[in-house]
Amino acid sequence: MAKFYLDFEEKIVELEEKIDKKRKKLSPDDEAGLEEIKELENELNKIVKETFSNLTIWQRVQLARHNQRPYTLDYISRITDNFVELHGDRLYADDPALITGLATINGKSVVLMGHQKGRDTKSNIYRNFGMANPEGYRKALRVMKLGAKYKRPIVTLIDTPGAFPGKGSEERSVAEAIAKNLYEMAVLPVPIICIITGEGGSGGALAIAIGDKVLMLENSIYSVISPEGCASIIFRDASKASVAAKELKITAYELLELGMIDDVIAEPIGGAHREVDKMSEILKERILKELKELEKTGPETLVKKRIEKFCNMGFWEE
């Protein structure tokens, strides 16, 4: 795959390419060349740290959508001992935009699911750009209920611009499918951990995000509408998306402050896409930690606390 980078990553990529070229020409006994590469690497580390320590809200939005950001299948291959994918909603069809299945993580049995985007035109068309149809959410609920039946905790990885708004999706009642997931997830008697790994777009994200713990990766976003959609409505100009993003409060630390999520998972310096293996290990450790804590609580108390948490979100002044 061709190297993809954002505008603010340009200097970093140029320096990386310079280092790669020098490495290829380097001979084993070239001490001066080794020293030069070491200096360039130090410079690279400094630039990466400076760049990613001072990100704007819009830059975090861009990172959440980064073409090389790890997706659900990338995490599955790295954090699970094994994974058995389960297909179909038993009503209409299978939906490749939402992966569901049974997995073990360090020997711990879980239900694991998440949105899946593509890396190129062909795979994006197949995965519908990570936008699930109603059958995707019905599949997810079917598998979650299966997990609850066998007392398996549920882990969801969320990365979608939103549920698919096409004609067929509406005809098959996507709003009803999402609403039913919200209702049913609220009362499932097993621990549920929901993690926004990239884009958390509208009801398409919320449909698998009703959990005892709702976490966000540091450079992910979570919002009722995309910045472009908001800008089109409020400013009548989609090009003002960066302005809308600032007003929407969609980044992880903003949402933590507002009480919409439970915690933020720090990413490696440079973002999840630069160190996928390290990000996967961080994610794995956090999932196991949260499961250990949640399993201390009985099913009735879990459900009661889950409902109370979502009912208490938001406040207003009259």
Helix percent band = 40-55%
Number-wise, the strands total 8
Please indicate the count of domains.
2
Q: Output the structural class.
A: alpha/beta
Give a quick account of the main beta sheet: strands, pairing sense, barrel closure: 8 strands, mixed
Q: What order do the SSEs take from the amino end to the carboxyl end, as H and E?
A: HHHHEEEHHEHHEHEEHHHEHH
End-to-end separation in angstroms reads 54 Å
Low-confidence stretches: none
At the third CATH level, what is the topology name of the largest domain? 2-enoyl-CoA Hydratase, Chain A, domain 1
Radius of gyration: 21 Å
- The CATH homologous superfamily name of the largest domain equals 2-enoyl-CoA Hydratase, Chain A, domain 1
Shape: globular
Mean pLDDT: 90
CATH class of the largest domain: Alpha Beta
Q: Proportion of β residues? A: 15-25%
Number of helices: 14
Oligomer state equals: single chain
The CATH architecture of the largest domain is: Alpha-Beta Complex
Walkthrough of the structure:
- With 318 residues, the protein is α/β, with parallel strands linked by helices.
- The chain has 2 domains: 8-54; 61-311, 2-enoyl-CoA Hydratase, Chain A, domain 1 (Alpha-Beta Complex), CATH 3.90.226.
- The chain is built from 14 helices and 8 strands.
- Strands 1, 2, 3, 4, 5, 6, 7 and 8 form an 8-stranded mixed β-sheet that branches.
- Helix 1 runs antiparallel to helix 2, helix 6 (134-149) runs parallel beside helix 8 and helix 10 crosses helix 11 (241-248).
- It is globular, with a radius of gyration of 21 Å.
